[in-house]
Amino acid sequence: MSKLLEIKDLHASIGGKEILKGVNLVINEGEVHAIMGPNGAGKSTLSAVLTGNPAYEVTSGEVYLKGQDLLSMPAEVRARAGVFLSFQYPVEIPGVSMTNFMRAAINAKRDYEGKEPISPKEFLSLMREKKKLLELPDKLNNRSVNEGFSGGEKKKNEIFQMAMLEPCLAILDETDSGLDIDALRIVAEGVNKLKTPQNASIVITHYQRLLDYIVPDFVHVLADGKIVKTGDKSLALELEEHGYENI
Amino acid sequence: MRISKGEIFERVFVNEEVNLQIDQEAGSHVKIHVINASFSITVNQLGEGCITEIYGLENLHGDESVTAETHVTHAVGGGTSNQLVKFVLADNSRGSFIGDLKIAPDAQQTEAHQTNRNLLLSDTAEMRTRPQLEIYADDVKATHGASTGQLDESALFYMQQRGIDKQKARQLLVNAFMKEVVETISDEKIKSDVLLLFEEEAF
User: Fold this and answer.
1) Does residue B180 belong to the interface with chain A, where contact is any CB pair within 8 Å?
2) pLDDT, tens only, B171-186
3) What ipTM did this prediction achieve?
């Protein structure tokens, strides 16, 4: 099992306020890591920093993706290298169709890998195949990105994009929030089908519920900007029962 | 010029300054697009049931400066008018929109819309907008809106997170912004020529 992601003593702030205060984490290929923790612990900051969101400033620490210095890469290069974020709040982009958006994303990745742009035929059949996985409607192609989508559709659309792009590291930020039980099942099944021995995921969640479907190998508790406890999936059940107060 | 009863007058001007004064007779239809040029268009609806559509789309770079001016008067009722003017301003470009909409006391059951939306792509670009509405009839439906903003940073980051570089992401957002106007061109050939014109331009 080789090392996919290594986070060393990561500190980050927003607007001068320190949110991450020394995060250490190693993720190997094939693993699923859950990150739980109270509101304001820094869970979303961690996903923002790993993906290169310009609103956050890394003040110290190192992050390596397959041995490469992740923090020195621009956001789009991190994505092409295989870091994917399923956004907690997917952004609506009026006027940009899912087709144009997805084609630009796929071709950016292929270009990075030294491949030719995808052919229109191949692209459409890939879209069709992956839509089926998430039980998304055919009309999706012509709709503007996330515009007018229900909460459940937006989250399905995130996992659909993940299926299209086949990242090596997927970060699911509160993917379960706002989902009814059927949408949750479809989303979780989608994530599980995309699991391979070579990729890994970080599942950020408040609730144990999602982890009934996406079973983690490790559960970490993030509190006040640090990982304060690590365990197996039973830790999630324990947290559900007793809360974060005793940690 | 005078557009006679029931006549349709439709033109798309690209890179060509436009100065027009139009009187519309009953039931006539005027539809004008101006792309990438200054214009001053005055339309008077003198007969009942006229339709007036004025669309402007200005994609400005460098030191370009463009003024878009519309004067639409509903002298009699039962007519509709729609004005949609959009500016995209890069570099040190300057844009200005002056839009007058007048609905006379007798022009009941008029439907009139005026929209001006502007996108600033640099800190040094400048947009002035002056919409002016004078509505003297009470049984009318009139809307107007003017706004000037920048590209949505969260949308840019969302696209970058999918591997799309910032330049391409900006281009997709700007094209989306302009598409609303281009889509209203009736002639498919001209529409695709205009789309092509914008695709070749860098943002």
Assistant:
1) yes
2) 999 999 999 999 999 9
3) 0.95
